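Hey, I'm writing a tutorial for new members on how sequence and structure tokens pair up, and I'd like a real worked example in the thread rather than a made-up one. If someone can provide the structure for the chain below, I'll link this post from the tutorial.
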Amino acid sequence: QVQLVESGGGLVQAGGSLRLSCAASGSIFRLNPMAWYRQAPGKQRELVASIGSGGSGNYADSVKGRFTISRDNAKNTVYLQMNSLKPEDTAVYYCNDMRMGYWGKGTLVTVSS
């Protein structure tokens, strides 16, 4: 059974950085495009960044230049490096296997002003 487990969330001041990790098990991870989504209170879940099996990333306009998605296929892990965080980045961040449609349970990121 496929599991996606996110970690790395927490409380950070505006301007700070966090790195989220998503560990995948039970799937052919290296072949699957992966994504990070987020959902802020009272808002719909939105795509933050995605990465293909070859390692190329795409980003929402709101995070371009601040966030970097990457993957380590040997570790079955995808990362989201978040720099210059803003209060509006506060949300639960979810990992998604775009090929299989699996989701993690999310990790909370809170950015204080």
